[in-house]
Amino acid sequence: MSTAADAGAVSLAPYAAHDAASRGRRYQEAHAEFRSEFQRDRDRVIHANAFRRLAYKTQVFVNHEGDLYRTRVTHSIEVAQIARSVAAALRLNEPLAEAISLAHDLGHTPFGHAGQDALNECMRDYGGFEHNLQSLRVVDELEERYPEFPGLNLTFESREGILKHCSLRNARELGELGERFLQRRQPSLEAQLANLADEIAYNNHDVDDGVRAGLLDVAELRRVRLFERQYAAVVAQYPQLSERRLVHEVIRRMINHIVVDLIRNTGELLAAAQPRSIEEVRAHPGPLVMMSAACHAEHLELKAFLREHVYRHYKVLRMTSKARRVLRELFGALFGDIDLLPPEHRDLARRAEAGRGPAGRARAVADYVAGMTDRYAILEHRRLFEPGEPT
Ligand code: MG
What is the CATH number of the domain that holds 38? Predict the structure, then answer.
C-alpha cells in the first residue's frame, strides 16, 4: 500500500536517507501504515521519559535560575528547527534530521557539561562516561516502554546520528555502529546536519541567554564579527530600537546568515561530489554538510568569545563547581551503598554487579545519576547529606 510518507519520499534527493535503504531496527517490526520509519523514530523520541526530563536539565544556566533560559528541551527543539529548515532546502530526510536533533541530548547528565565531566571522572576506572554514548544507551536500553524490546528500537540511521562522537575504545565494542569511527566513514547527511544545527543553535541562544543573565553586554559583543555586521545593519535600519528587540533581531539575522551560508555551501559541495546514495555519502572522504570557510571561521570566533565570556564567567564557574561536587557526592554515596538507591535501581545495580562486577554496579549508578534532572539531583543530594532534610 502506498502511504502519504511514500508519496513525500518522491521529492527526497538520492543522497538523502530513504526508508527503503534503511539498515533497519535491531528488533524487526512491521511497518507503520501511515508513517515513514523516520517519522516513527521522531515520535518515539518525543514520547520518551528521557525527553520530558530534558525540560528540567541545564544547558548553561541551572534550571532554577530563571524561567526564560534555554533548557535542554528548548535547545533540542531549536536544533530540530534549524535542522529541518536546512533539510527541506536540500531535499534531505526531514523527519530523520528532526529525530536525531530531538534525541541528541537525551543522555545528558544534570548540570550540563560540568555534570558530564564529573560523572566521567567518577567512572574513570569503569569505562568512563560520554554523553553521546549515554544518549545511545537511553534509546537502545534504558527507556522501558514497549512490550517486545528494550529502549525505543530506533532505526540504524537515527542511532548513527545520535552517536556523533565516540572514543575508538568504545567504537570497538559497538559493532556496526562503531564501524564508521574505526574506518573513518561519514554518517548520513541528516546526521551531519543535526550535528551542525546543534552548534548553530547553542552559539546563538547562548548570546541571548548571556545577555539576559547580564554576563554579556552589547558593547563587548560588537567585537565579534558575526554580531557586529548584523548589529550595524539593524541599527542603521532601526536607530530607535530597544536593546531587547535589538539583540533579538541581531540573533535572528545571525542564525539566518549562517543557515543560508550552510545551505548554499552544502549545495555546492553536493553538486561537486554528486553522491548517488546514502552509501556514497558514507564513503565520501569528508563531511559534505559544511558552512563556507569564511562563515565557519566567524562561527568559531563567536564560540571562543562565548567560552571566555559566558562559560568561563566566574558566576557560571561557581555554579559548575557546585554541580560537579553534587554529582561526585551523589555517585560516591550511591556507589558505596546501593541499598540507598530506590528499589528498582538497586535491583538493576545488583543484577549488573552479579554479571559484570563493580563495573556493572558503577554503570547502573551512573545511569541513575545521569537520568536525574537538575532539581532532582539537588533534592536527592539534600536527602542524602542534609541531616534536617525529610527523606
Ligand atoms: Mg546539544
Answer: 1.10.3210.10
